[in-house]
Design brief:
Distance between the termini: 113 Å
Helix content: 25-40%
CATH superfamily of the domain at 13-108: Jelly Rolls
Number of strands: 10
Strand content: 25-35%
């Protein structure tokens, strides 16, 4: 099956890592995160990508360009590109989040067990997606083959029509031309009856 389908709350609750990439498309990436009590993701700015957060369990707060807002289960937040932000777990239990980067930020299927692992890693999205591009190329090839077949059929029909209009052989063409020429010549005049009689005498 193409794409990703799952209960995102269950997926977030199953995750025990600071960050885990679930699915990567060319222009979007789905990630789940788990923040321990008192832990935050770290203040950051994504200059060229938007980010969406949804709280699946727990409570905390989000900072967007200096404005603090309390968040809890089912809270949704959007951080536009170029905006400084941070998410903090202010509760007593693990804060579980689902987040979407558009376009992708991290390598596909990457797992950072802890915040320290994430901050020490220099990985970034490298163009690899969850579903290989080769599958998409094969679809394009199939379309190209169908177009080629259609063009070949059209050419064959045109050739058949043109051939049908031409004379079957050269001899047939010559006979047709000879008939036309004969039709254009004036008929020969017969000698007068008197002239013939005089010659007889």
């Amino acid at each position: 099956m193409k794409g990703f389908v799952d209960n995102i709350e269950d997926a977030a609750i199953r995750n025990s890592s600071f960050r885990q990439v679930l699915y990567t498309a060319e222009r979007m990436q789905l990630v789940v995160m788990a923040l321990e009590p008192g832990e935050d993701i770290g203040e950051e700015v994504h200059s060229d990508r938007d980010q969406y957060f949804r709280v699946e369990k727990g409570k905390g707060e989000i900072w967007i360009d200096g404005t603090k807002t309390k968040i809890r289960k089912n809270s949704a937040m959007i951080v536009p590109a170029g905006t400084r932000h941070n998410v903090l777990n202010s509760g007593g239990k693990v804060l579980r989040l689902a987040t979407i980067y558009a376009p992708p930020e991290h390598q596909d299927a990457i797992v950072h067990r802890t915040k320290a692992d994430a901050h020490s890693s220099e990985e970034h999205f490298d163009g690899t997606v969850t579903e290989p591009k080769a599958k998409r190329r094969s679809a394009k090839r199939a379309t190209g083959q169908a177009t080629a077949k259609s063009t070949a059929k059209s050419t064959a029909k045109t050739t058949a029509k043109t051939t049908a209009k031409k004379p079957a052989t050269r001899s047939a063409a010559k006979k047709t031309a000879a008939k036309k020429t004969a039709a254009k010549r004036p008929a020969a005049k017969r000698p007068a009856t008197r002239a013939r009689s005089a010659e007889t005498d």
